[in-house]
């Protein structure tokens, strides 16, 4: 049991005199440990006593604990809790475990009455434990729990799957093979669906939306078309619970036999199995587990006898609380809908995010460009530094553009290429296989367009370009603002413009996330893991690590949360020599205990005088005799590598959405066969804001930007910094001003379109 230290401050008194028990149950999922760590440390920070429940078992158990299914087992569990004065329970598990926990809470009064009657507990104990608060966190790789965008472990499972898919892709291309991959997920097709989006699969079988009758002919036609288009491989993804319209199972072997028999292709089956549960958690799952752990403790300590048992989850990037049994009910409704063959309802009940993913997949995989053309031409370009996921965005932009009947042009080397006429037609097959490629296939430059207005206008005129989709970082945003300024002089620039933010720095105004930031964050996190591991078995050591990001502290902060850093120095949060001194002293005290590793992150432009060398020298001097120091500047490795599943999927959806918007704008701005777009809303940035993908006029975003430091004036992730400090055992005030309120699942279903 972890004992609370003495504290002062409002939040730090919340848990005084209270006890919290935390347990994990059901199937394991990567990221659960981060959640447990957060519950324990934040619980202790509030002054509460925190207990571990080992192996689930008789204190609460799970759907997999037979003992707990009996009244006798639940009586034992209740007595164990009452004897320790535990009235707050944090359960991390799947729907079975959470349903069991809710049943336990509903029976609590009668369990106590029975224990009192049989002498199992005293009247005083019963009085002190008169009600039980329960908060759930969903830990499941299947992402099958309705009401939450992502369950803990799902993103890590996708990482494992994509590593294997990428490896298989290279071997399949060598031999011209067809691969049938079976992924986990029980009766939920989420893993299969996102995998197929992220690798550009030819076909996916998911239980929520079985293929139409006669799918065998359609599938074979698809595979033949792909091969005729020049592709050397086919990938088919099968969810383990896949069925046909009549409820009959579709197995990976069924699919293989069909392809071999009908087409004679060399076909192999790979069943991924439990490898999807293994490995280290992704950066997203570590941060998700940490954030949910903090929220769970707050929900428990703010709970009353009238508060329903709730689940803490994520919607977009917002922490939300949802009534546990509403979530369980909607999750059951999905199964009922599938059993009753109401497949459209099953997809809808899975939530808006699932629906959007399914619609984008169907567009990209099942619809071919129409024979009738729209008569419009769109150009796509990359601007700024390369970011993983840019190619996925270009691929979906091109393919969705072709589906709309547009002529699609690729511009090489950004605005400079646009000025120099480095423009070519780009076809459906040309972008095949781009989803998993890092960097920028089109080539990208930081050059801004102002000095090239005449040349750019000439190129737009020569190629008859009616709309521009610009994928890039801060330069893409600034360059597009310059193009808008140029509209007054150059009529050719009066065309719709859409900016898609793509940069590792995540510093573009108007979007909480940029394409490429997740990949960079995972690179930093895994590198920090390796660096810390390199010192295993040696004496105490502190690592000072410099991250990229320009003046934006997103990477340093999030990597700090994911890697359990002791400090993360950023430009947005001013720090003095006194702060550095406090950090060094704090770390020195920690190192005198059982702690052997320290991690300190520094954003590259956080302070011009307190450089990485300065901080390294300071820690080295002050730690003499207690720990030694090492420093690492991570550099451009943060821009490289294959994109993560999130960046592939995010890029794909952003590309698809931008084309739909620009197609509507072109129609809106058409006058007698000519396009004239001169209003503020004809040049927009597509960004992820809280829970929704929204188009915002560039001129409005201008007001929200600090141009000198190339960052937005307000950044959502700064609110997460206190969590970083509390998890590093600092006694500070936790600002929960943006407190997650209880919402309702069905209400959430019909809220604005989310990702």
From TrEMBL:
This is ATP-dependent 6-phosphofructokinase. Its EC number is 2.7.1.11. Residues 377-755 are annotated as: C-terminal regulatory PFK domain 2. Catalyzes the phosphorylation of D-fructose 6-phosphate to fructose 1,6-bisphosphate by ATP, the first committing step of glycolysis. Its main location: cytoplasm. Keywords: Acetylation, Allosteric enzyme, ATP-binding, Cytoplasm, Glycolysis, Glycoprotein, Hydroxylation, Kinase, Magnesium, Metal-binding, Nucleotide-binding, Phosphoprotein, Transferase. Belongs to the phosphofructokinase type A (PFKA) family. ATP-dependent PFK group I subfamily. Eukaryotic two domain clade "E" sub-subfamily. One of its GO terms (molecular function) is ATP binding. Pfam families: PFK (PF00365). Homo- and heterotetramers.
